[in-house]
């Protein structure tokens, strides 16, 4: 038993999916409409079958149109999401640069404090080698107090610098993880599109 040409065309269209078959569906719909309008037979069953085919094809076309619109909307949302992520990553990079600059300034300050401490150590040593009565003793006590203050300041700055380095390392790790996640999502999306195209 041979299969009618219309059925063969219909099956090809149904299998075609998103592979550019929309025009073919519209041509087939036009053919069905003309066929149905030119129907001269009084056979209601045959006319009803043609009408049902027409409605089925029309529903399929509407479904494909809705599907295409939803895919386009999804792609637009994904594009907006990636643009937002790109902007957020850019802002995080700027924040990281600011943190790096602050850490560099604190490091310069810590080095200056260390240099001052070394100079104070040399000066204190000279004072100790050449003691001078009560005034020298009082000045030495004051200098020792200043050295303690400088040591506390240096310890506080070194602690703060260490904290900033850890914060910066965490931030860089988060940025790297986010970039890898975006790349994985992009690759998954491309692989998904390739699978859909191959299936069609």
Summarize the structure.
The protein is rod-shaped. Helix content is 90%, strand content 0%.
Overview of the structural elements:
The structure is a single chain. With 200 residues, the chain is mainly alpha-helical. The chain is built from 4 helices and no strands. It has helices at residues 5-16, 22-37, 44-129, 133-199. Helix 1 packs antiparallel against helix 2. The mean pLDDT is 80.
For the largest beta-sheet, the strand count, sense and barrel status come to: none
Molecular shape: rod-shaped
What's the β-strand tally?
0
> From the structure provided, what is the oligomeric state, counting identical versus distinct chains?
single chain
What distance lies between the first and last C-alpha atoms, to the nearest angstrom? 29 Å
Secondary-structure blueprint:
Blueprint: H1 5-16, H2 22-37, H3 44-129, H4 133-199
Based on the model shown, name its key terms:
200 residues, mainly alpha, 4 helices
């Amino acid at each position: 038993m041979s299969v009618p040409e219309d059925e063969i065309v219909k099956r090809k269209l149904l299998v075609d999916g998103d592979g550019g078959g929309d025009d073919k569906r519209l041509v087939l719909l036009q053919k069905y409409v003309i066929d149905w309008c030119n129907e001269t037979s009084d056979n209601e069953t045959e006319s009803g079958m043609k009408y049902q085919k027409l409605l089925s094809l029309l529903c399929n076309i509407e479904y494909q149109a809705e599907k295409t619109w939803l895919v386009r909307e999804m792609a637009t949302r994904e594009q907006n999401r990636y643009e937002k992520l790109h902007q957020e990553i850019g802002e995080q990079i700027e924040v990281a640069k600011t943190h790096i600059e602050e850490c560099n300034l604190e490091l310069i300050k810590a080095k200056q404090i260390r240099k001052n401490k070394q100079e104070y150590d040399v000066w204190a040593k000279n004072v100790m080698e050449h003691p001078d009565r009560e005034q020298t003793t009082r000045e030495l006590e004051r200098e020792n107090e200043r050295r303690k203050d400088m040591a506390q300041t240096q310890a506080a700055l070194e602690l703060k610098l260490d904290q900033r380095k850890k914060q910066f390392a965490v931030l860089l790790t988060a940025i790297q993880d986010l970039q890898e996640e975006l790349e994985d999502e992009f690759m998954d999306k491309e692989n998904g599109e390739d699978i859909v195209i191959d299936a069609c």
